[in-house]
Amino acid sequence: MDKQLKYQEIIVNLLETWKGYTISNLPNLTIDIHINKENSNFIVLSYGWHEDEYIYNVLFHIQIKDDTKVWLHEDTTGIGIAKELMEAGIQKEDLIIGFAEVLEDDLVTTV
Question: pTM above the 0.90 mark?
């Protein structure tokens, strides 16, 4: 299996774990998973009403660029999606954090 397909499979498996997930302090929000294998874009959104406020958040956005580089464009989960990706088999040198200048423990490449 080539690296891009392997990484897509890892990412899709991670996203599948978010199906049916509920945010404990915002139980009325919908969690939506968007998988676009053709363009190697993977997004998890949360949205909906909380009391009188409409909330829309990108929980995380992952993209495979140049066939082998996994870009983490956003991670607002607080659980460390980068660490989960590496534990699932994405190589540290192929994971790029696009939203942070410095990452604790220098886990991955940042831009």
Answer: no
